[in-house]
């Protein structure tokens, strides 16, 4: 038995994913080129604000930590880290992109041929809710997840699909593209967030209240080694197995699989409540502010009409 720091035996490539690091840096560079140098090429383009750039950088760092740092490696060893990755990736990183991307860039991206078809789903919010939560729940069925983790291509494809669907799911709430009159009202946005939480609950409950470990890729040595090929170079893994250094996740942790699984479900539920709590607060105060602005506008127009009426009446006295 060793501790989690022993994952260093998998080497630098597995722990720090330099290719994914280069990818995140490239995306960040393109973002700043577009928003600081090329924004005039877009309809309605404007300089990026400090707040938007700070959120984008923070989000890219978060994404690299989740999918490029040792956190990704640990997500294949402990199911609790897997759920931590799911919660922060789909329920925090995805909606943060709406705060980081200026409205003109959002409009351009969702207008691209392929993305236009994908984000058309968001015009039916109930469908967007069902698609993400349905696929998320199906993905976490033991037979599905264990099978997907046997193929890097299939597993990565499903993770990308879920991330895209999470962007689509949050589009009706946070997008800056649709005209204001096409947005859901503040109350409906709050109910929408509540609906996401309700639909996520069955998957969390299944994981928390299971009487035994459900996923062989976290308990069975052979299945686990096959799943580790998703993030560890084949040569490194074969060498470690050949030397008899590792045979299963128990080498890295004393955590009982069933307790780890229960902790994973609790983490997902608690993180969801925290993130959604902030979202609900944001939506409520923005709704209140908009309603107040509308009331002030109605009052202003009423006073203006009264003034014009009074001026008109004076002309006939």
TrEMBL record:
Keywords: Cell membrane, Membrane, Transmembrane, Transmembrane helix. The chain crosses the membrane at residues 12-34, 54-71, 77-101, 121-141, 153-174, 186-210, 263-285. It is found in: Cell membrane. The keyword Transmembrane applies. It is a multi-pass membrane protein. It comes from the Bacteria. GO terms for cellular component: plasma membrane. It holds the Pfam family Caa3_CtaG. This is Putative membrane protein. It comes from Lacicoccus qingdaonensis. The lineage of its organism: Bacteria, Bacillati, Bacillota, Bacilli, Bacillales.
